[in-house]
Amino acid sequence: MHGRCDVKFAAVQEAFAANFREHGEIGAAVCIAVEGRTVIDIWAGSADAARTRDWNEDTIVNVFSVGKAMASLCVLMLLEEGALELAQPVARYWPEFAAAGKEAITVQALLSHRAGLPALRRALAPEAIYDWQAMTGALAAEQPWWQPDTQHGYHVNTFGFLIGELVRRVSGEPIGAFFKRRVAQPLGADFHFGLPAEHHGRVAEFTFPEIPDFKGDVGENMVFSAYFNPPGVSGNGTVNTPAWREAEMPSGNGHSNARAVARIYSALAAVDGVSLLAADTLALATTEFSGGHDAVLDRPSRFGLGFQLTQPERPLGPGQRSFGHFGAGGSLGFADPDSGVAFGYTTNQGLGPRWQNPRNRGLVDALYSALNG
C-alpha cells in the first residue's frame, strides 16, 4: 500500500486492505477530502489481472458511470451561464432531435433519465460505438420507449451521447474538449473523455465480469437493447482496447484515478479559489427529479440533474443530501455537503455485486465511522 493517510482515518486504510484480503480486489485507489483537505490518498495492488504491473500513483482506469456525473457538469455549467434552459425542448438546440415524437422532450427530462431513450431499436454494428455521428444520429431518429416525462429509467449507455451532443450543439466543442478545458485542466484533475494514446501505458486493465444473463433481442427487449446495442457498448470485450480508450463515450468510458474524482467533487464548492458551480445551481442539480421504480433497472432509483442521489437501497453514506455516481465494478464518486466529504474510489475489479458492492460500501462505512468516532 502506498500514499498517505491521516491517523484519524486509519479505519479506511484498514477497510481498503480488507478489500484485497477478503473481496478479491486486484488494484485500486481511494482518495477522500474533508472540507477541501485531503485526508487519505492511497493505492495498492496490480494494474493487470496477471499481476505483472503495479498500480502506481498515476495509474488511471475506466470508471464507467462515474463519468455520467462529470459529463453532466458540462451541461450544468452551460445552464448556469444561460446558454441553455431546463424547460426548453432539446430540439431547440438540436433540431434533428424533434423526430419521432420527441419535439417536446426538455433538457430537464434528458438530464433526469425521463426522456424515454434508454436504448436503440435498430441494430447497429459494433464499430458504431466509436462513431459519434452514428450514435447521435440514431438517437435523434429514435422513437421514445415510453411517453417522455411520465416515468424514469436509467439511460445506461445513451445518456452520455444525448447530453454530449447537447453540449456540442450549444458550446461548439466536443464534450471531451469542453470537459478538459472547463473542469479537468483548471483543477489539475486526471480525468478524461477520449484518452490520448500517450496515456494508455498507465491505464489499468479492467477485469470485466461475465455478461449478465439478459434475455432478449435488439429492438424488442428494451433492457437488452440498452446494454447490448451496439455490441460492446457496455464495455464487454471492448474496455481494454485502444479504440475504446480513445473514443468519447461519456456514459461509460471516462478514465480517471480516485484523486481526480475526489478533487472534482471537492470543487463543487469553492476550494483553492475554484468553484465549478454556484450554490443555487448545485442545489437545483441535487434536487430529486426522478424517484421510485426505475423502468430499466427494475428497482428503485433516484436522480437529480445527472447525479445519482442517496437512497436506502444504495446509500452514499448517512448524509441525506449526498450525491454522486456509481460505476460498474464498484468505482464511486460522491459528495456529502453535510459532512464536507468528497469521495473517490477507482478499481479494476469488475466482479462482484452490481448494486451493493462490499468493497465501496466497506470504505464508505469506515469513513463515516472515523468521522463520527
Give a written overview of the molecule.
- The chain is globular.
- The protein has helices at residues 10-22, 66-80, 107-111, 132-141, 158-171, 175-187, 222-228, 242-246, 258-266, 279-285, 358-372, and strands at 2-5, 27-34, 37-45, 61-62, 255-256, 290-293, 300-303, 308-309, 323-326, 332-336, 341-347.
- It is of the alpha+beta class and 373 residues long.
- The chain is 30% helix and 14% strand.
- The protein has a single domain (59-342), classed as 3-Layer(aba) Sandwich (Beta-lactamase).
- It is built from eleven helices and eleven strands.
User: What is the CATH level 1 assignment?
Assistant: Alpha Beta
Look up the CATH topology: Beta-lactamase
Question: Judging by the overall fold, what is the CATH architecture?
Answer: 3-Layer(aba) Sandwich
Number of helices: 11
Sheet bearing the most strands, described? 7 strands, antiparallel
The share of residues in helices is 25-40%
Strand content: 5-15%
Nearest-integer average pLDDT: 95
Strand order of the largest sheet: 1-3-2-11-10-9-8
- SSE order in H/E notation? EHEEEHHHHHHHEHHEEEEEEH
Low-confidence stretches: none
Over the alpha carbons, how many angstroms does the gyration radius reach?
19 Å
Total domain units: 1
Shape: globular
End-to-end separation: 24 Å
Q: Provide the structure class.
A: alpha+beta
Question: How many beta-strand runs?
Answer: 11
